[in-house]
Amino acid sequence: MNNQYLKLTTDNTDLTDLRCDNEEKLRRLTFFCPCGSCGQWFILFLFVFVTVGVFAQELSGYDIMKLADERYTGDTAQYKLGMTLSSGRGAPRFREVSYYFKDYGDTDKILMVFQSPRDVAGTGYLSFSYDDESKDDDMWLYLPAMRRVRRITGSGKNDDFMGTDFTYEDMGSRSLAKDTFSFQGEESIDGEPCRIVEARPKDKSDPYGRRVIWIRKDSNVIAAADYYDRQDKPLKTLRVSNIQRIDNIWTALKMEMTNVQNKHSTVIEISEIKFNIPLDDSLFAVTTLERGNLR
Questions:
Q1: Among residues 24, 155, 210, 245, which is most buried (max CB within 10 A)?
Q2: 3-class secondary-structure state, position 67
Q3: Closest C-alpha to 166, from 267, 55, 79, 76
Q4: Residue 119: what are its φ and ψ, rounded to 5°?
Q5: Residue 28 CB contacts under 8 Å (≥ 6 apart), including other chains
Q6: Which residue has the higher pLDDT, 242 or 173?
Q7: Residue 290 to residue 58: CA distance in whole angstroms
Q8: pLDDT tens digit string along 93-132?
Q9: CA 198 to CA 208: how far, in whole Å?
Q10: What is the SS3 assignment for 283?
């Protein structure tokens, strides 16, 4: 074998001069090499291979969740949400929502305004999610019928969001500091390799006893999640589909949350997506909610 094709030249050092101090170890390793004269190269490649393999396995559950939490979702975003609520009894209910997002560096701000049907039109929801894991999200809800803004705090964040199967916290960005995470292996969802993470809440009053989350390896987008109640019985399932790269930003276009205990489900579909467009800061202010007239 011509060793010139195996030379690393980052520091002008010819690695053919490398020698193994332990000849017995060298003989064991070169047994797997088709040419004994290049044993030192096989050792080098074996070391790199093993190192990369170990590094890949060293991603903890927390590391994987942090990658998902910090993935790029645009500096700003605007789109429409179509929500379909089904109970298996009667006709499904449909709601249309305008969605606005802006990244302020250490804070992500979201405004959602319900456009239809008439009984919820004008309802506004504002949330601030902080990079500081020790800080809880701030959330406010404007109810036009009452003409006032209600701050959502404490256990209220675990209430159903506007009658859907998502909680207020599900709609925001749950702080990683609230859970402990463990890596559970890998599995494909819809043909896409995913890492599996189990999340267990630190707060014993949390409505979820644990969550099992599948996160796609190619995009760090959550592909699925199973939710269990405090008695460890299946409570809800989340299935995410139609995950596309739009303006080079991975985007989930369809999410379905199903409550397996009461057979109610909510499907959210996203359309009319615009990333990185100018959005006025006044949109993301509590005073904007208080003034109403959000339609």
A1: 210
A2: helix
A3: 267
A4: -70, -15
A5: none
A6: 242
A7: 48
A8: 999 999 999 999 999 999 999 999 999 999 999 999 998 8
A9: 12
A10: helix
**Tokens describing residue 40:** 């030192």
DSSP 167: B
Radius of gyration of the chain from its Cα atoms, rounded to whole angstroms? 25
256: tokens are 């379905």
- 153, two tokens: 């705090």
Q: Both tokens of residue 37?
A: 């004269």
Structure token pair of residue 243: 């995950």
Instruction: Give me the architecture of the 64-291 domain, per CATH.
Output: Clam (2.50)
Q: How many CA atoms lie within 13 A of 207 on its CB side?
A: 15
Q: Tokens 């490649």 sit at which residue? A: 45
Please name the amino acid found at residue 287.
Answer: T
- pTM higher than 0.85: no
Kind and range of the H or E element at 40? helix 39-57
Structure tokens at 41: 């190269």
Q: What type of residue is 84?
A: T
Q: Select from 178, 110, 107, 97 the least CA-distant residue to 139.
A: 110
H/E segment holding residue 274: strand 264-275
- Token pair in block for residue 172: 């925001």
User: HEC profile for 104-142?
Assistant: CCCEEEEEEEEEECCCCCCCEEEEEEECCCCCCCEEEEE
In 3D space, the residue among 149, 126, 150 whose CA is nearest the CA of residue 138 turns out to be 126
